[in-house]
Amino acid sequence: MKFDTAGKCRAVIVAAGRSSRMGGGISKQFLPLLGIPAIIWTLRAFDDARSIEQVVLVCRAEESEKMRDCVGRYEIRKVAAVVPGGNSRQESVFAGVRALPPGTGYVAVHDGARPLVMPEEIDACVRDAFRTGASALAVPLKNTVKRADSLGWVCSTPSRDGLWTVQTPQTFELSLYRKALAAAQAEEKDYTDDCQLIERLGAPVHLCRGNYENLKLTTSEDLALAEAILQKRNGNP
């Protein structure tokens, strides 16, 4: 199958989560990293990615105005729309996809809570999608994994060979992704990973080697690690 590499790639960045595991009563998108909201680090990476034309930012409806103010205050250039999300991640992505303008050939879906992604990693994933139709950043699994029963007793130890930890962005040819979304809705399936939608169609997804630093902010411990990585990148001890 050949894919149209002339179509523009635009991003849907999902920042509509409830942040229930983070605690503290504030959405993790607005938590400060070195004094700057986490979502701004994410958006700056997409501003600097040469492959991304525009960004649709999806957030909770009650935070839309705060998000627009944040985008304006930090002079983010590529955000073309801020739209309210749904009750699940999949619904939120769908809301972002519906807001994409005509002429979009590819969509790069990214978690707003992954503020450490690098522009060159975004570009690599998009280039890979131009070649394959569906690509996701990922890294080989480093830790040993155990399969356990409901009581915590080890049942088996799967081999790490061929196992990867998937990240975002995940980039897809837009018509393929829309077909996958429609199929998931028809089957009343709700997936937490966008690649699963494509896999459900029986279409292949290629993994693009990413970086272990591209972590997702999930718990409070992740904030300290993210700040340490940013300080290292900025040349600070």
Outline the fold blueprint.
Elements: E1 8-15, E2 32-33, E3 36-37, H1 38-48, E4 52-59, H2 64-73, E5 79-84, H3 89-98, E6 104-111, H4 119-132, E7 134-140, E8 147-148, E9 154-156, E10 164-173, H5 174-186, H6 194-200, E11 206-209, H7 220-233
Parallel strand pairs: 1-4, 1-6, 4-5, 7-11
Antiparallel strand pairs: 2-3, 6-10, 7-10, 8-9
Quick recap:
It contains 7 helices and 11 strands.
If you had to describe this structure to a student in words, what would you say it looks like?
The protein is α/β, with parallel strands linked by helices and 237 residues long. Helix content is 33%, strand content 25%. The chain is built from 7 helices and 11 strands. The protein has helices at residues 38-48, 64-73, 89-98, 119-132, 174-186, 194-200, 220-233, and strands at residues 8-15, 32-33, 36-37, 52-59, 79-84, 104-111, 134-140, 147-148, 154-156, 164-173, 206-209. Strands 5-4-1-6-10-7-11 form a 7-stranded mixed sheet, with helices on both faces. The chain starts with 7 loop residues before the first strand and ends with a helix. The mean pLDDT is 92.
Q: What would you call the quaternary organization?
A: single chain
**Individual helix count:** 7
Beta strand count: 11
Fraction of residues in H or I helices: 25-40%
Sheet with the most strands: spatial strand order = 5-4-1-6-10-7-11
Question: Can you tag this structure with a few keywords?
Answer:
237 residues; alpha/beta; two-stranded antiparallel ribbon; globular
